[in-house]
Amino acid sequence: DAKTTQPPSMDCAEGRAANLPCNHSTISGNEYVYWYRQIHSQGPQYIIHGLKNNETNEMASLIITEDRKSSTLILPHAPLRDTAVYYCIVRGTSYDKVIFGPGTSLSVIP
Amino acid sequence: NAGVTQTPKFQVLKTGQSMTLQCAQDMNHEYMSWYRQDPGMGLRLIHYSVGAGITDQGEVPNGYNVSRSTTEDFPLRLLSAAPSQTSVYFCASSASRGRVLETQYFGPGTRLLVL
Fold first, then answer.
1. Taking 50 as the threshold, does the pLDDT of residue B99 lie above it?
2. Nearest by CB to A46, which of B96, B104, B109?
3. Is the pLDDT of residue B12 over 60?
4. I want to staple A105 with a disulfide (CB 3.0 to 4.6 A). Which of A2, A9, A10, B44 is the partner?
5. A60-96 as b/e: b if 16+ CB within 10 A
6. Which of A22, A104, A20 is nearest to A70 (CA)?
7. Half-sphere exposure of B103 toward its Cβ, with a 13 Å CA cutoff?
8. Residue A36 Cα, gap to closest chain B Cα (Å)
């Protein structure tokens, strides 16, 4: 089973920030939080990952709570093309299998 | 680099037929995996491999076989196709350096219809 829980769907107005939550209450100390997205029927695309510090890249920001039991992916000024399914995953070593949950379907609305 | 390639892009099979879905990567990645995605659903892990000669089962391995004779290739075999195996199949790979994590790269997918 997936180690994360996410809301099944969310809406966001075009140009506004989209905040996607993820709960991972059973995360262990060596597990990272990864975010991927899948646009329509394409293969999933990596967005960002982090261990315990907040992270930012050209696509998004990742905020991880101090107890690491939850995180939020922030898409600043979301354009229409950010409409996709977003997956939050926890993974320890690179030998661990990667399990996807159902994700959050984000709709960016004009 | 071509990244992760999958062949064929589309396939129609009759119940009981067997076939092999091909997956190749040219990034020298140790970790490779296969997922299936049914309409409106998330990805489910079928099998994965952490290196040549090493494979393990994922969430839904029944009806599928894999082998990893080289680092580059990770074929998925359907032994006797069933309509329940109608799905989109994604292959993924990532580098594997122990505690250093790498992101996964996904192929474009193979759309399989079993009649």
1. no
2. B104
3. yes
4. A9
5. bbbbbeeebebbbbbbeebeeebbbbbbbbbbeebbb
6. A22
7. 15
8. 9
